[in-house]
Amino acid sequence: MLSYALRRLLGAVPTIFVIITIAFFLMRVAPGGPFDQERTLEPQVMANLQAAFGLDLPLWQQYLRYLGNLATGDLGPSFVYRDFSVQQLLGAGLPISVQLGVSALVLALILGGTLGVIAALRQNSPVDYLVIAVATFGITVPNFVVAPVLSLVFGVWLSVLPAGGWQDFSLAHMALPVITLALPQVAVIARLIRGAMLEALRSDHVRTARAYGLPLTMVVGVHALRAASLPVLSYLGPAAAALLTGSVVVETIFGIPGIGRYFVQGALNRDYTLVMGTVVIVAVFVVIFNLLVDLLYAAVDPRVRYG
Amino acid sequence: MPRWTPGCAMADIAHDLAQAPKGRSLWATAWLRLRRNKAAMASLVVLVLYALLGIFGPLLWIHDYRSVYTNYVRAPASLTPYPRAEAIIPGAEAALARARLDVTSVEFDGGTVRVAVTSAREIDPRVTRYLDRSDFFSGARVADMAADGKSALLEADVARLLFVFGTDQNGRDLAARILISIRISMLIGALATSVALVIGVVYGATAGFLGGRIDNVMMRVVDVIYSLPFIFFVILLVVFFGRNIVLMFIAVGAVEWLDMARIVRGQTLSLRRREFVLAAEALGVRRRAIVRRHIIPNVLGPVIVFVTLLIPKVILLESFLSFLGLGVQEPLTSLGVLISEGARNMRAAPWMLIYPSIALTVLLFALNFLGDGLRDALDPKDR
Q: Has domain A90-300 been given CATH number 1.10.3720.10?
């Protein structure tokens, strides 16, 4: 198992390398630069700035330099947020994004799982249709609609929760962003669990368990749910990686200092190192979560074995 | 009727064919099944309505989406026409204060206002323009002028304006903005999807048909693009192409073709081993012709289903980009732009958030339901 995990991690290195390479050159092909401002800088000033950040070198040298720094864990200085390194910026934002993402994920798993199981147990009943309707709603309504509407209703009209802003460890500030992040995930998970559960309930091993006279909670909660959780697991890999690395929309609307907003701001400002930093983080998260999912898969499904 | 039938036997065979039970084609069956799906048919009606609104709405609506009514900034949504009675007299006073006239009395009955004004100097009859310039009044005229020209009675009709969805922060009619943004969003959805469709089908069919090493390389490329952070990729494309709406279709389409390519490749791989393709190959039909005549028509079913589900995704993506300020630019607008403006103004003007959100949500719902319905209707496993 451990050697499998290690091999997988090593195998991911070329993937990350290709992603970094493509992102690096794509970014540079785009017109504009980090020091373009309303007011054009004096040529000498511009040249000095470029030299200070190593932008005067040929592109391939910059690329090699970036890779070299990256190998030592150095993501470089931010071009636009002066006096901050990319590590500092991401280091400050990532814990917040992760905190929100993990909360949303846990909420989505509990809520989505419960809804899905209930719907499957009561197939074609009003409860089932209600769950399907809620799931369709959650998948269809985009988060940039959900977020401001929640903020309007709970933050402004009812004034029960803060409409935006962030304080560390404040549940009230987390509530609306977490709900916004969790809603589409609840919908997808409920749908996946419902479908898989329906199939699992008809399977032989569940029928056997029932025939043995096991209590229903045991049959559903252990035997059927175990089989039904497989499709959710494979969905969760990329979804968790996306959740934990922050959401531009949620962070913009609720004014949260996470790392999601750096994707957009970084690309717009041509803050090359910051964009590359976010790309690296996302790529690493995707690789790790896919690996985690595969390992969990083996734990849940005894037919899957990794040597 | 078979083409090779000799002329003399044709009548008999035609007779037999008329007697035989009529077979239903795949498409006729699918249509029958779709018609039984109430949610899908309701969605179809909604979509036709949206298309009509998008095409004709901006032409026929009482307001132009570019007209600015400075007197009606953030006017709440209302079914009774503006101006409100209590706003008329202050409105007339404000308009004439700009003309440096002293208002002695303002009368207002139903459709017209009568304003008596005095001034230290002689009154120029052209002051009526100050009244006309206000969005409250039209057809202002001098009803009576004193002999010395220092006092006058002005008359003006009250201009009745209807803002069913209210106005935005610049005083533009929100209903007109929503109509034009429905047009833009649906246009982008259709065009970007066509781009994705063409690239995806050609790429996928080629990879699946050629197979082997070329297929491997081509699908590796898809995998790599797939693993790039999606937002980053779109933003780069938009930044690269500039904020041009036509180029945005292409940028969005260029990102969304990956799934399409995968689906088509999978279908093509299995089609390739079917007898009719082998027969065509044995007959010496050229590869390009096989792809065009045999492969593409046969992958059409899953592709159509995917397309109906891709359109809402593309509309969503466009709205998302517009929400970030990267999409459609003023004075044109799209549902994403309206929602982002609504989010910024939601405390003072909640209707600016609510109506565009409803418009977008209904559109996305209809597209999703229709897509699901089509999938059920075309799924051969479920026959």
A: yes
